[in-house]
Design a protein that fits this description.
This protein has helices at 9-18, 24-35, 55-72, 83-92, 114-120, 149-161, 172-181, 205-213, 236-250, 267-270, 290-299, 304-322, and strands at 2-7, 38-46, 77-79, 95-102, 122-126, 164-166, 186-188, 217-220, 255-257. By secondary structure, the chain is α/β, with parallel strands linked by helices. Strands 1, 2, 3, 4, 5, 6, 7, 8 and 9 form a 9-stranded parallel beta sheet that branches. The protein is globular and about 50 Å long.
Length: 324
């Protein structure tokens, strides 16, 4: 079984529920989750590109539909906050859901709003998506701008409350500013190795080592454009190359899966951040193909214990350390 520590499921829920549909996870996603042996996932609220000019309103819409979906599907979903909750969900035959948020633009310039997010159940948050906001600067923002004073306050609040801090979309300066301020393990929920695929969203070797030094982890991203510059090499084998490289630098205990699948998103959302029409990564096009990745890992010499650590144990360790 596995936990996917980054998925945009709430965006799909929001779009479809706004059109009058219900039971989105059950009708559109659950079968693929089961085929992929996915026992849990960090489902993320973010301000999708068609709505970046109205972040507060879009956030309220998203959490409204998120809460409706959770309430009406308690037979298949359980929101969790630690490993105890995860294993309870597995025992009940339910999907373990971690509530996450990607970018704090809906808070404007008020980091105290993080207290509200915590009370709503959010336990994994990144300060930015690709944009720059009052707290920090994302991968597409000003390279000379990093974490702001409000961002430093946000980091402290998150650590005091017990929220996992995600640096995947931070630009390099924001990453290192966060590294200096944070005291608890940090994660990059959906990033690969920049030395193998030179895009801003991937991590340098120095960043990878810094995450390892802090006891954090990196979720391997299956988005094809983050795997290899050559389109013909965007496949599961090259994805494993990223895993091997990161493991060589900081060890198996700092790896997880953060697949970032989005084949289900509307084109007006996905077309804002991809080069070509999305066609997936060969061999792991969506979560249902995850067993193929597991088989390939076994062929490449990963032990069963290695695979279990990467699949769910490492992330649960972080949850227990940070969230309690």
């Amino acid at each position: 079984m596995l936990i996917d520590i980054h998925g945009d499921i709430w965006t799909d829920v929001t779009v479809k529920r706004s059109l009058g549909e219900r039971d989105i996870i059950k009708r559109y996603h659950l079968d693929r989750f089961k085929k992929g042996d996915m026992a849990g996932g960090a489902f993320i609220v973010w301000i999708d590109p068609p709505h970046v000019e109205r972040p507060k309103e879009r956030f309220l819409e998203s959490i409204k539909y998120m809460c409706q979906e959770i309430w009406e599907n308690q037979d298949i979903l359980r929101v969790i906050f630690n490993s105890k909750g995860f294993y309870a969900a597995v025992a009940e035959g339910k999907l373990a859901v971690i509530l996450g948020m990607e970018g704090l633009s809906p808070l404007g310039d008020d980091p105290e709003g993080i207290y509200v997010l915590y009370q709503l159940g959010f336990r994994q948050i990144s300060l930015t998506w690709n944009e720059q906001n009052a707290f920090g600067t994302g991968a597409r923002g000003d390279t000379n701008r990093g974490l702001t004073e409000l961002g430093k306050r946000a980091v402290k609040i998150m650590e005091n409350l017990g929220i996992i801090l995600d640096v995947s979309h931070a630009n390099d300066r924001t990453f290192w500013d966060i590294y200096k301020v944070a005291t608890k393990p940090i994660i990059a929920s959906h990033s690969n190795a920049r030395v193998l695929c030179p895009v801003k969203r991937n991590l340098t070797d120095e960043q990878i080592k810094a995450i390892g030094e802090r006891g954090g982890l990196i979720g391997i991203n299956a988005f094809n454009e983050f795997i290899h510059a050559d389109r013909d090499k965007r496949n599961v084998d090259y994805l494993i190359n990223h895993m091997e490289h990161i493991a060589e630098l900081i060890g198996i205990d700092h790896l997880a899966f953060g697949f970032d699948f989005f084949e289900y998103l509307e084109e007006d959302t996905s077309q804002s951040f991809i080069e070509d029409p999305y066609r997936g990564t060969s061999g792991i096009e969506d979560i249902s193909k995850a067993p193929n990745l597991i088989s390939k890992l076994q062929e490449r010499g990963f032990s069963q214990e290695d695979i279990e650590r990467i699949s769910y144990k490492n992330y649960l360790r972080i949850m227990d350390i940070v969230c309690g």
